[in-house]
């Protein structure tokens, strides 16, 4: 299979010599091709127009990138199972079983697995497979109780007792999805369930071995414990306060002094102050006082203490309406074993099945039976994995060469009528269709890298009309004009499946599009500059007029108000005389004479320059005049056209793909002729009929007006020629 002396064929495409992959022999020798001659060295798994599952299979290290060694491994693996290496170049949707090399043990076993797949799918007589067949594991393994994934379901046995246990395990500890699509259990879930079961049974066994010591109240122990626990902290606080009062009798008055706290809530609705009242002492504090259980209690705690009295105190100390601190401590000691036993609880997840059912599962030895089923399923793991390898081979047979053409060489990109795997669809905008559209994976990287591409790029936010999914697409405009392209403009994007997306321009990278557009760019810039300046001047004059008019109105209104206020005054009051301002400066005649003189000189110089240009032009012989005009046009547009030509020859797709996660190893030039194919402008279909009469066309000027204007222009020109002596020189 290895041939280091293989003769390669190369073609010059996009200014770069690229290898031609024309036969299976080329693919077999691919590992000996110098990587410096590969167009790409890495590409992302996601965002490409090729089956993502195929790319995931090639990406052996699962890092989201496909590199050269992984490509070579995929090619070598696929070739090892095919009789004819040329079959990989066909890119057919159907895979004939006759293509499998059954002369090797691996190939023969893979062929047997392919027949099993067809049998499970009910296609026993079929001799071909498709990706749809091999990728539908649910259908492939539905009819088989075991499929090699180590997961057993209720279909793995006919024993109703085991089926019940499987479902109970799923209920308690969860499930995993089997290759058949059903829920089941594997070795980990089996071990988890039976481990928890054993812990729970052991915990319950401790209780049965010392039932009276652990549960002093019998079956009511839990209820009694909860009633004691509800007031434990509050009662401990009460007895501690009583001890403090015994330590210093003067503190009793302070501990019982609630007047200030009650006064703060007395004006409120006390029902809204229950939390505040609950913080008050449980009962009146006195040195050595027992805890009353029925009278003199904090009203918020009466219910909880009454519940404790009923469930605990009356049973341990019948007839008493109070308990001492020693009796309270004795109650806590009785609950200590129960508290210790509860803290050791284990196997909570299986508790819902109940102890009798768990003991029944143990006695029936269901663990061994389920373990045997799992082992039996694992025994055919190799066969099941081979079925997965069949799917891999069918996918490689269809997709691998397509990837090679877009990785080793950009054959699809430079082939008219074909689209590369990185071309996401077609953008329609401003009477043109752009086919060089690429999904943007990382906008930040694009902002940093795409400026060096030399392309005119527009970034569009696209929203699917069907699924409302959003994505960003960058499109290269390589033909047409840019006058109507602005951020915010709407367009329509069609993906490779023909689904339409609403697109909105969110960013533009400005670069030359064509020589024609570069020719007109200086004039457009001048026109834009003049228009901008005219708009600024008009806006400034408008603001000046409005400001002047507004100030006059304000002065008149102010004067009227002052006059009205003086007329209604009760007594005349002499207003202070305002100091006189400086007198206006006298009219400087000399200054304005100088200004007018400067303006006259400027106009004279301008007229002289125009006259000299006209004189020089008229001094030319008739056949040189067009050449002079052409020279002036080239002088203005020539530099822009030259710069545009140099940039258009160097347009490079590589920076855009690099920003998307590719590692491009060679230039991907988009020259002028190729760019015209990537962006199509609107044109009428062949044999179209066109009605040239436009009802909304501006009416033409009457002929007499045209003749009169021509005569006036000719007269003015003749006068200028005579006035400046040009006619006599000519």
Written account of the structure:
The chain has 730 residues and is an alpha+beta fold. Among the domains are: 10-144 and 380-405, no CATH class; 154-210 and 353-379, no CATH class; 216-346, no CATH class; 425-511 and 651-681, no CATH class. It is 51% helix and 11% strand. The chain has 26 helices and 19 strands. An eight-stranded antiparallel sheet has the order 13-15-14-17-16-11-12-19. The protein has a three-stranded antiparallel sheet with strand order 4-3-18. Strand 7 (176-177) and strand 8 (183-184) form a beta hairpin.
SSE arrangement:
Elements: E1 10-13, E2 16-19, H1 24-28, E3 40-44, H2 52-58, E4 65-67, H3 68-80, E5 94-96, H4 105-120, E6 128-130, H5 131-135, H6 137-142, H7 160-173, E7 176-177, E8 183-184, H8 187-209, H9 211-214, H10 221-247, H11 250-256, H12 259-266, H13 274-278, E9 291-292, H14 302-316, E10 322-323, H15 325-343, H16 355-363, H17 366-379, H18 381-405, E11 425-428, E12 432-434, E13 437-439, H19 443-449, E14 456-464, E15 470-477, E16 490-495, E17 500-509, H20 515-567, H21 589-618, H22 625-649, H23 654-659, E18 663-664, H24 672-678, E19 679-681, H25 703-723, H26 726-729
Helix pairs in contact: 3-18, 4-18, 7-8, 10-11, 10-14, 10-15, 20-22
Short description:
The protein is α+β, with helices and mostly antiparallel strands and 730 residues long. It is built from 26 helices and 19 strands.
């Amino acid at each position: 299979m290895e041939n280091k002396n293989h003769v390669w064929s190369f073609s010059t495409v996009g200014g770069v010599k690229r290898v031609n992959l024309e036969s299976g022999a080329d693919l077999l020798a691919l590992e000996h091709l110098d990587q410096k001659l590969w167009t790409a060295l890495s590409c992302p798994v996601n965002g490409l127009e090729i089956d993502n599952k195929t790319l995931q299979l090639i990406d052996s290290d699962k890092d989201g990138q496909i590199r050269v060694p992984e490509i070579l491994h995929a090619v070598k693996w696929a070739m090892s199972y095919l009789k004819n290496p040329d079959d990989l170049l066909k890119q057919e949707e159907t895979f004939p079983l006759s293509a499998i090399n059954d002369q090797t043990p691996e190939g023969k076993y893979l062929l047997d697995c392919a027949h099993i797949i067809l049998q499970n799918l009910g296609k026993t007589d079929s001799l071909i497979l498709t990706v749809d067949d091999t990728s539908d594991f649910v259908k492939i393994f539905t009819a088989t109780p075991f499929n090699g994934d180590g997961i057993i379901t209720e279909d793995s046995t006919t024993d109703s007792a085991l089926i019940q246990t499987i479902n109970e395990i799923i209920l308690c500890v969860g499930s995993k999805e089997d290759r058949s699509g059903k829920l089941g259990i594997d070795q980990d879930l089996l071990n988890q369930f039976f481990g928890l079961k054993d812990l729970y049974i052991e915990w319950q066994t401790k209780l049965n071995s010392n039932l009276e010591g652990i549960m002093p109240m019998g079956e009511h122990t839990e209820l009694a414990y909860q009633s004691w626990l509800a007031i434990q902290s509050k009662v401990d606080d009460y007895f501690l306060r009583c001890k403090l009062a015994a330590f210093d009798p003067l503190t009793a008055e302070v501990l019982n002094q609630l007047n200030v706290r009650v006064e703060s809530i007395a004006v409120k609705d006390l029902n809204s102050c229950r939390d505040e009242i609950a913080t008050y002492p449980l009962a009146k504090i006195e040195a050595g006082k027992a805890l009353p259980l029925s009278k003199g209690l904090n009203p918020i705690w009466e219910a909880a203490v009454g519940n404790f009295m009923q469930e605990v105190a009356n049973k341990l100390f019948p007839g008493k309406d109070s308990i001492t601190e020693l009796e309270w401590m004795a109650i806590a000691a009785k609950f200590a074993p129960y508290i210790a036993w509860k803290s050791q609880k284990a196997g909570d997840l299986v508790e819902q099945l109940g102890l009798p059912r768990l003991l029944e599962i143990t006695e029936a030895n269901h663990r061994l039976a389920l373990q045997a089923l799992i082992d039996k399923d694992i025994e055919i793991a190799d066969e099941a994995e081979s079925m997965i390898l069949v799917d891999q081979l069918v996918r490689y047979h269809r997709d691998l060469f397509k990837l090679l053409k877009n990785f080793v060489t950009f054959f699809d990109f430079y082939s008219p009528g074909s689209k590369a795997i990185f071309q996401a669809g077609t953008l329609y905008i401003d009477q043109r269709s752009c086919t060089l559209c690429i999904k943007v994976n990382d906008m930040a990287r694009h902002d940093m890298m795409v400026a060096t591409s030399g392309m005119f790029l527009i970034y569009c936010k696209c929203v699917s009309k069907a699924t409302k999914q959003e994505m960003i697409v960058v499109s290269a405009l390589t033909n047409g004009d840019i006058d109507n392209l602005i951020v915010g403009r709407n367009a329509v994007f069609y993906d490779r499946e023909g689904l339409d997306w609403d697109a909105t321009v969110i960013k533009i990278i400005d670069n030359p599009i064509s020589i024609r557009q570069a020719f007109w760019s200086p004039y457009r810039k001048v026109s834009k500059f003049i228009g901008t300046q005219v708009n600024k001047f008009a806006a400034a004059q408008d603001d000046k007029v409005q400001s002047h008019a507004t100030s006059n109105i304000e002065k008149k209104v102010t004067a009227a108000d002052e006059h009205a206020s003086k007329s209604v005054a009760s007594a005349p009051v002499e207003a202070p005389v305002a100091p006189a301002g400086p007198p206006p400066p006298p009219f400087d005649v000399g200054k304005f004479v100088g200004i007018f003189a400067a303006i006259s000189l400027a106009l004279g110089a301008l007229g002289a320059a125009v006259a000299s240009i006209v004189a020089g032009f008229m001094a030319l012989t008739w056949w040189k005049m067009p050449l002079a005009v052409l020279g002036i046009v080239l002088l203005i547009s020539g530099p822009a056209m030259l710069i545009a030509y140099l940039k258009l020859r160097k347009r490079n797709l590589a920076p855009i793909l690099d920003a998307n996660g590719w590692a491009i190893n060679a230039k991907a030039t988009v020259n002028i002729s190729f760019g015209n194919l990537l962006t199509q402008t609107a044109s009428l279909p062949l044999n179209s009929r066109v009605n040239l009469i436009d009802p909304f066309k501006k009416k033409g000027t009457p002929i007499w007006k045209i003749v009169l204007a021509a005569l006036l222009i000719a007269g003015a020109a003749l006068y200028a020629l005579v006035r400046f002596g040009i006619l006599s020189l000519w």
